[in-house]
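Tokenise the fold.
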Amino acid sequence: MTDASATTPRRPGEQALAALGLGAPAPDPADASPHAFPDGGRWRTEIPSCEGPEALAVVLEEASRLDVPIHRISQGSGVWMLTDAEITEMVGATAERSIELCLFTGPRGTWDIGGSTRTDSRGAGLRARGHDAVAGCVEDAVRATELGVKCLLVADEGVLWTLHRARAAGIIPADTTLKVSALIGPVNPASYALYENLGADSINVPSDLTLDHLTEIRRVSGAPMDMYIEAPDDLGGYVRMYEVAELIRRGAPLYLKFGLSKAPGIYPYGQHMRDLTLSTARERVRRGRLALDLLARHGADGDMAPLGSRLPGKLNRFATPA
């Protein structure tokens, strides 16, 4: 990474367009996020869809080869799709490198008997249907944290609130972080602030939010935001590489998620999808290198949070019942 203090950040094509009389107005300082991670960093990195120890090994090897710094690695199939030995291996490999490991909790709408998620209206979406689905999420959370997992992915408001209460009650460790999935990501400031108050430590917003939307959110909440810089096809397939610097300026504190478009879905993962999963894991890291190179070329790669940092800082919460 370059020393940002030695360069002045520039926007893509800025000098060439100015020479042609096509320059854009200077960015408005009022649009910039006033927030940061507790260590002062304004962005972290995440490699998603890392579905087991073998995929994790590929990600770590490729990250070392391409010099891609990683703060967090997340998995999408779910805790219940991994054995205790597999979880333990992943916990050990990430802990050795001070990377946060985040595993998805419990059954969710597309995988149970409800058909409403497959209608045009999408029904209840990806949420946990019924008491038993919530119970499955809690079971996953307890099992994963007992095996050393420190970050849990959730796709339901009730599950989020329940796990936040469990954290407050000491049922799961107090330093467990709760991450809201892109599958239910909020699209306005009010809902973003609601997730923060329900216990979210980072919130994945849809990748189709505009820059103005990010500024609107940052006027009401400083909770860490996650965003796919390249989104999977089932989340829109958006590629926002050239906007990375502005996404950070508007959305900090921000996790840059390096997803992959034009790739088949791999959830729930099994050995029958091994080759695809390993090849896409490798390419996600390469996409990260491309985004980081863009930031460096534009002199905008400063303010990365220190590697090993994971906590969100002080956030707003609803009071939990006694």
